[in-house]
Amino acid sequence: MGVGGDNAIKRFWRGRRLREAPAMRGLVRETSLSPAHMICPLFVVPGVNRREPVSSMPGVARLSPDLAAGECGRLAALGIGGVLLFGIPGAKSADASGAWDANGPVPEAIRLIKARAPGLVVVTDVCLCEYTENGHCGFIRNGRIDNDLTLPALARAALAHTEAGADLVAPSDMMDGRVLRIREALDAAGFNTTGILAYAVKYASAFYGPFREAAGSVPAHGDRRSHQMDPANAREAVREARADLEEGADMLMVKPALAYLDIVRALRDRFDAPIACYNVSGEYAAVKAAAANGWLDERRVVLEALVSMRRAGADIVITYHAPDAARWLREEGSA
Ligand code: PBG
Question: Which CATH number belongs to the domain containing residue 212 in this structure?
């Protein structure tokens, strides 16, 4: 029988057949999104009962360790899988020694969180930019960030977090060789069960703007393009990921998320390790600002963006929207 005519129309595939009823849509839904896939970033400051809202990130505040632990109790009750801690020290220094202070806000928060919400996976960001006076991710020598000079400090910071009870350390500095250096330091100290979530593919992105306000880590001079990746590069992302896996990373991260979902997919297709993507501060701020103006439906936009990250191949979504998204998913009965 030839193509065309009424008979052919009857045989056409009709996508709408499976879209009409909610239960049918549920049966054929390819991607799941649940709070268990989410990690919520938290900014931790020294002190007690301290909460400082971050103006460019409505709904996000810098919290003292006690309040961070309380927040973690709520996140755990929402079914959220983990938290990612960023420390903002009381004082910055040239040697960045606050980064490995056992009594700094991050180790303090880890201990309180582990007591309050023991089931939550605690991840810590490992970088020097919040701790150096000049806001750079590494030590400067002869006007440049010196990669190898920075590695021991990163390893010390990772070890301090691990000693306090972190489950995963997440180096975000983008120095070469830091995953291996951290792995060696943790193993030498007997912490072979603590994992490394490598910020393997971190782009030099303007989407980090609000974070730098929150963390007080705007570089005093220059930018981060000597170590973070060029947004134009995709093949290089594969090399970065492979290098980190070879050095001992347990999981890979792609950052930012939305403008880089092709990179998430590229890594998913090539590697078997779990992949996280980081829905960063600027992505969050943009949605919040548009929603505050009534220009976007926040709930629908957020859930659409988060499921797209999962669809691209991310196992884990790191997002400031986590508590809201968890509540919305619960309301929809799919959490
Ligand atoms: C560096 C770090 C940054 C972010 C996470 N870790 C900032 C930077 O590289 O300048 C950005 C996170 C976000 O924008 O939400 N410690």
Answer: 3.20.20.70
Q: Is residue 26 situated within a structural domain? A: no
In a domain, 92, yes or no: yes
Q: Burial letters for 131-140: b for 16+ Cβ neighbours within 10 Å, e otherwise?
A: bbebbbbbbb
Going by alpha carbons, the residue nearest to atom 6 of ligand 1 is 172
Domain that holds residue 255: 32-334
State the alpha helices, DSSP H only, in 189-297: 209-215, 235-247, 261-270, 281-292
Phi, psi of 218 (to 5 degrees): -70, 125
Domain count, the chain: 1
3-state helix, strand, coil in the chain (%, to 5): 45, 20, 35
Considering the entire predicted model, what is its pTM? Answer: 0.95
Per-position DSSP letters for 263-289, written without gaps between them:
HHHHHHHH--S-EEEEE-HHHHHHHHH
Q: Determine if ligand 1 sits within 6 Å of the CB of residue 129.
A: yes
The alpha carbon of residue 214 and the mean position of all alpha carbons in its chain are separated, in whole angstroms, by 15
92 tagged catalytic? no
79 domain residue, yes or no = yes
Q: What is the per-residue pLDDT across 275-329, written as a single tens digit (0 to 9) for each?
A: 999 999 999 999 999 999 999 999 999 999 999 999 999 999 999 999 999 999 9
| Separation of alpha carbons 71 and 273, rounded Å | 30
Ligand 1 pocket residue status of 127, Cβ below 6 Å: yes
CA–CA separation, 274 and 308 (whole Å)? 17
Nearest Cα neighbor of 203 from 178, 240, 168 is 240
Residue 38 maps to a domain: yes
